[in-house]
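The aim of this short unit is practical: by the end, you should be able to scan a pair of folded records and say something sensible about each. We start with the first protein, listed as its amino acid sequence and then its structure tokens.
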Amino acid sequence: MSAHSGPSPYTTEDLDMFRDGLVKFLESECPPEAIERWNHNKIVDREMWTKGGEFGLLGLGVPEEYGGMGADFRHERILIEEFGARGMEGWGVPLHNSIVAPYLIAFGTDEQKKRWLPKVVTGEIVLGIAMTEPGTGSDLQGIRTRARLEGDKWVLNGQKTFISNGQTADLILVVCRTSDNGSRGISLIAVEGDRVGFTRGRNLDKMGRAAQDTSELFFEDVRVPADNLVGGVEGKGFGQLMQMLPQERLGIAAMGLAILERALKLTVEYTRERQAFGKPLMEFQNTQFTLADIKAKAVIARSFIDTCTEKLIRGELDAVTASIAKLWITETELEGVNKCLQLFGGYGYMNEYPIAQLYKDARIDTIHGGTSEVMKILISRTL
């Protein structure tokens, strides 16, 4: 059963069928013991990507001519919600589908689309995107990874960190500097995972989202064909990133809501059963008021994400509105999950209880995709 808090105005028969099929797939292929194994191993089994491709889970937005569904962000929302409802935030399918693939769909040349997109759909290619560098964080204009054109090859040198799908990705879109012309000197170059000179560092030991392989990446004279330049035109990378970041931030907000709704569901169940001073915790006004406040904010968050989804599908979701969604919903997520854990008392501090894992998983959402502070800077420019 989905953890979402109410019907969406965008629910259709097609979307309901997709959700029903997805739920059956997840119940069959992703039982709790598998999720526990992925968390322990700090990586999702590679075969799951192939199974996801066979089911039709991957590359949802890829046009039908390249083997995809040609779906819109509503399908991605359903996937994010159902992953969140099961504590599967660590499997990087939303990154693969709704963050990285759109760059190839929107900006890739015809040849690039034919070469990569069918394999993105089948799971033969797992996608990653390498933005963050040590010392740069959210400052994309401060990147130091460079690429120079030598004949018909780009030669890359540099280092990236905190890269999701870093151990698994077969194709990584690398944000790099191809000239010193400010933001116009930034390009996206696709690097295959088996290129000479490309190495993956350690699978980073994180506080939460343990199953998500997150890595350092190193590029030492990595040579890739000139036609691996995404879009085929040098210096367009910064504009491409700015165009796609609103969808990334909306996706993070959607996952934040999914985590908040799951935390609320678990806490309602727990407080109905847990006794204190001779009666269930749910009968105390403090419990009722705390959970009522979280419920109200979750409903408001869902309504706003629905509005943002509609704008995104129409091509009208601007960077500021997406920043507002990410800022408010992820901060609300942290506050709500923290209050839910408090109602579990000492049991909430035990790793065997899902609320403890949710608390750790939630903490990244105000950081990745642009910190809350960066979101405030973007919003403040409109005041």
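Turning to the second protein, read its sequence before its tokens, just as you did above.
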Amino acid sequence: MSSTAPRHTALDALHRALGATMTDFAGWDMPLRYGSERDEHQAVRTRAGLFDLSHMGEITVTGPQAAAFLNHALVGNIASVDVGRARYTMICRADGGILDDLIVYRLAEAEAGSAHYMVVANASNAQVVLDALTERAAGFDVEVRDDRDAYALIAVQGPESAGVLKSLTDADLDGLKYYAGLPGTVAGVPALIARTGYTGEDGFELFVNPEHAVELWQALTEAGAGVGLVPCGLSCRDTLRLEAGMPLYGHELSTALTPFDAGLGRVVKFEKEGDFVGREALREAAARSEHNPPRVLVGLVAKGRRVPRAGYPVVADGRVIGEVTSGAPSPTLGRPIAMAYVDGAHAAPGTPGVGVDIRGSHEPYEVVALPFYKRQK
């Protein structure tokens, strides 16, 4: 009989000692907030924030045919990823529906002739992705390994994040590009240092052995004290990614949508060598989207104060033209915002007469291009 008790990360006791409000997320007990989610959000936008992301699902793929296998299993061209780089991609069903969006890191080979990749899945889909990759590995000379328990994942995000990290490592952070990763030592802890994140800010994600998670968190906390780094929970992670126009699985992405429906057709690489799962269905989806565009993902900014939530109808001219996928108050804009799929005729920024039906009341909203927020580089 399988246990339904939530899983705990290596930092669980520390979160509780910090007074975090905990919540169940994808079967994990995770910090929702430590104090004010608005303050945590603003810290990441202006200074730095520290996140426990150990609920994410790491899957290691190794072997002589690892690149060819991942090209077959995923929609992107993984074979073209250089050692030390990462790529955003998706895994789809045969019918083109999105099973998950992923980041794939190509790591240095441990032995000659054997490529080494780490696939990072969303917590809610980690088992689904693991099962799909294991099934699709048949006939390839590869090993697919569940490494979810092998890593703790700590993120430091925000404009001060590079400075905080530089004080703890001699790794070449200046040479580390966005969507790249390198092995290094942070505060004496061996880590994969990745310049990735989900906040719209510059930042880093540190993959470490769970037994080192507490000492690394404490070292980062001390190193960031002078610049106002604070611990951050899932609540502000959601408002940060929403402002940055980043999709969340189960909201903007699902098995009912193809990457083309989600406006992310660019991640599908038809030109790569070999067949891949979902190719034919995705070719049809690409053709459909050219001739008969699906609903378009847009930004909505409230003219009033009422907050839209996922599932609320988007309306215009007395009829439903779409649906909200994510909504929240925006600390940066000072007004409620939402992402929504709407009919193409109402997708242009500034389209008049668009509103959200909030419990029977049609609240006026402005259609805007995504993202709502883009950092100054």
